[in-house]
Amino acid sequence: MAAYNDLSSAVSLAGAAATDNDSNNMTIDEGNGGCGPIIFTVINNCGIVETRFKVNKTTKMQKVFKAYAKKHNIHIASPGIHFKFHEKHIQPNDTAASLGLKDDDTIQCVNTITINTTTTSSKFKELQLYTNFTTCSHCNLPPHNNNNKKLLTCSDCASAAYHNSACQRSHWKVHKRSCAKLSQSLLPLKELIRWNKLFKVMKQQQYHDVSSSVGTKRKKKKRPLTWCWWHPDNENGITSQTLQHTNHIWNVAVEHWNTKDYLRAMEGMQFALEAYQSAWPYIGKGSGSFEMPSDDVDVAVDGRRRESGGGEQMKNDALGGGDDHNEMEIEEEGDDFFETSMILAKRLLFLAYCELDGGQIASARQRLVQCISITNTIIYSSHNASRTKNNRSAQSILDDVYMELMLSMEEVESDKILARHVANLAIANGNCCGWVDPMQRPGYMARSTVQLSSVPICPLEQRPIWCNELERNYGRILDEYNNTSRGTPMMTNQWMDVGCGRRGSGHDDHSVVSGRGWKEYVLFGTGAIESDYDAPFTKKLLRQHVPDAVTLAQEGGGEVIFSRLSPRTHIKPHCGPTNLRWTAHLGLVIPKSKSDCRIRVGNEWKSWSAGKILLFDDSFEHEVRNDTDEERVVLLIRLWHPELTSRTVLASQLVQEAIAKKE
Prior knowledge:
- By secondary structure, this protein is of the alpha+beta class.
- The strands form 5 sheets. The protein has an 8-stranded mixed sheet with strand order 1-2-3-5-4-8-6-7, with helices on one face. It has a 6-stranded antiparallel sheet with strand order 14-16-17-24-19-22. Strands 15-18-23-20-21 form a 5-stranded antiparallel sheet, with no helix packed on it.
- A hairpin with a 5-residue loop joins β4 (37-43) and β5 (49-56).
- The radius of gyration is 29 Å and the shape is globular.
């Protein structure tokens, strides 16, 4: 039996509460009553062991519920959460004795709370670049243990970190080749940070007096100014005539777009927004103070369109939409501030989409950060409930903008590391895209009433029970892998390069491979052999013990494959498409030098072991290095996030949409 130490400071209960070094073990009411204690386990819907309890047989289960709820930060009174033992609901007044619980029995916490994709964070923090680098770029060692001091980042590119100036000087010959390019790519993000600082100062300090009538008396009241660099003034070069000219050019471009003359349309749109490109460098030079509408003004931003600004709807909004292309125009200076700002934000985002597709990356990134500044001004300058709809629309655009900005970094080989900076800004900017960690930036981030846990690598004690079954049958699975590699031509021909397009997803996976190659053999998913003759035992084992993974693959949301990485091959850092699913690797053929064949998930490096499962969340940034002269082979399984209980067709569709978005 494990030894249990005092845990009363962590869990407040009417009785002793204790744990050993493994915080998943808890003791309740030990020594109370005349009955001896028993030890049982609480698992979640997926069979993952979450907590082990040691209780007296007379202990009421209500105490167990409370301890479990506090530990896992859930509301036990929620109608979507209950506990079951042998398919029977457990009541708060039940005891271990009345339930017939014995040592090593298992009860299940059933959580049926569904996913809610609404952003809840609203606080606009100071925008900052990512600084949490864990290893020195020169010596590849973590920070020295002196007061947890962080590594120093390069002041130009902010993407290399060092212990001290000596490390930086030693690394300069290597780093200078990438520093200049990274610094240039980082400029839009630095401009956004500069805007953020100026915006916060203006919002806090700049007020002016306006008169208002209360009965027969008149009094002065302060009203904040909304600072907007894009509004006409005497310094940024934008005038009312400029706006009229801009709208005329935009409408002509729309006509070209509607006749499918996309090149001329794009050139016209760029010309139409040229004035804003010129005004953007003027931030901080007095540009743009615009009085906010008073609280009794009912502001509506395109009231017929309440959905996300992305995709086809964004295109319609930006181009004018419907039969009346003038409905999105800024006709005169007196138009409502929020509406005109939303129109400009949608146009900037749409043009950025076009420029990214056309390879004009630098221009697109600058338009995206301009769009961020405008949508933030809309969101954080609103004060009454009537503007909730406007904020929702602006927040949707903001999510799309940060996603595009991040992808624009990830898709350029030399700029990949800058995606961490974009995610860090998005998190500070109200957890845009649902991101909570700069190292975890999938295309779709599930947000739920009970937050899905975000751990790069699943601890051994929390692994699902089926992991033991696969590890126990490792030898037979290895035999069937060998059979697919050396068997009939039909089987050997099933081996394909990752990202070759024969599988339903992962079309761009080849772009992250550097070296001799990465091949796969699909067991379940698009491209698999319909019969079981190639790997009968493995397929039967998976259907029996990991049925959700098989279903997920068959519905197009994942795959189960033999994955073979060639010697001297590097899978570059990248993030998976969604945190709705995890990835399991069962080591089959592992190089002898484990230190030269590793995987990094988040900031943690791990090596495989033959016959052992490594379970991780691939929505975290991860990479694989095989620096040996041997192959590395694993059985790769995509499965639902262990805490995701709404495993419906809708959830499968969300996975597929996330995969498509990242590709």
